[in-house]
Amino acid sequence: MKLTDDEKAMLDGKEGKTVQRAMDFLIRYGEALGAERLVDTNNVGGYLIATRDNYHKASGNFDTVFSFTGLDSTETLELPKVKAYSTQLETDMDLEYYELQGKDIEDYNRYRANEQYLANIGIHLMCTCTPYLVGNVPVKGEHCAWMESSAVVYINSVLGARTNCEGNASSTASMLTGKTPYWGFHTDEHRLGTHLIQVEHEVQGMMEWGLLGYFAGKAVGEKVPVFDGIRHIPRRDDLKQFGAATASSGGVEMYHIPGITADAKTVQEAFGGKKPLYTLQYGAAERRAAYEQLNMLGSNRDVDFVMFGCPHNSLEQTWEICKMLEGKHIKDGSSLWILMPRALKDTATRNGFTRIIEAAGGVIMSDTCPALGRIMPKGTKVMATNSAKQAHYLPSIMGIESWYGTTQECINAAITGRWEGELK
To answer: How many whole angstroms separate alpha carbon 93 and alpha carbon 166?
Structure first.
């Protein structure tokens, strides 16, 4: 790998042993991927949260935990202040609701100490899978190094930023060096479309975008789909849910909707003038198949848990829920959780959204989600959600049944305790 003078200096240890180790990791990582050089980045989204077990094994030393999980080192290295602008993504709990989430005071204290540790080394505690909703909005062409599949596909596609889906070690190393390997979605060639999907069924509304995304991810895997035939301009939240679905059923990190997403105005431009490898159709049959796959683990229609906010809710999504919920109450014995970034929850509270939701028997949570935190209301058996991503992951992670549908169908299930959703 060709190194610049500042990269050679870091590798030679001129900025300390920890930065040296981070640079050494990035070089080995990049060479394994076939990268010929590194590229500067000043926007890293990572995950530096110590699990309870790791924290105990390291005798309560965060440097020990993150030397291993973040720098591939069995030697304890003191992490200096980060060089790149760095964001902590979602975490494993919400301090305000730690008991409701099945955590104890030991978890609470660990998390508080972890937050302070991250703040001390300069990491911004956004603690959300949607940092682009609360201030971290990369511009077109900006080289980033982000984890979190739904965030990666969003900033690559909708914003036109450039990142691969990084892991703990690579993102931590990028935080400390301001570098990331130049390969994959950092390059023009890799961002070109591979599969053309002719959209023959009308796609409008978040549930429909989730179905299209779920179909596309299964169809193309880790390739780059290009969608032709979209007749309605999607909202930001539609694309947020859509991208999360493509990354969950497949491994999509970038897609093109010519004229809407950032990189291409036409189908031809999305493919760089080349022919697609495959052309697929999305019509009524494909739509129904996606819906049935997302609901295949639902048989019991007695719903006891309704969950919104995967990826984390925007203010607009929470406002829409409030309009459906105001003056009503969820069924006794059921739970309603709405996940949104903490920075937006303050505005939600000022707008009266928190009051409406709590009056109905629900809660607004932040910082985490059921799948990542492995958290649910005690005794949950059947969940309803408007998130294709959560419907895909949570049943297998937590051993529950799940229903996927519209926001209104999920609200109705919270109020009645029954799932009455259907594909119309």
So the answer is: 22
Q: Which two tokens stand for residue 265?
A: 């105005």
pTM of the model: 0.96
d(CA 378, CA 366): 19
Cα distance between residue 89 and residue 47, in whole Å: 6
Phi-psi region at 333: left, alpha or beta (left = phi > 0; alpha = psi -120 to 50):
left
3-class SS of residue 279 = strand
**DSSP secondary structure of 195-238:** EEEEE-S---SHHHHHHHHHHHHHHHTTS-EEEE---SPPPHHH
Secondary structure of residue 154 in the 3-state scheme: helix
Cβ-defined contacts of 58-67 (< 8 Å, 24+): 60/113, 62/113, 62/114, 62/117, 66/172
Q: Is there a contact between 150 and 243 (Cβ–Cβ < 8 Å)?
A: yes
Q: What is the pLDDT of residues 195-238, one digit of tens each?
A: 999 999 999 999 999 999 999 999 999 999 999 999 999 999 99
Q: How many CB atoms lie within 10 A of CB 174?
A: 32
**Secondary structure E strands in 359-400:** 363-365, 382-385
Average pLDDT over residues 334-355: 97
73: helix, coil or strand?
A: coil
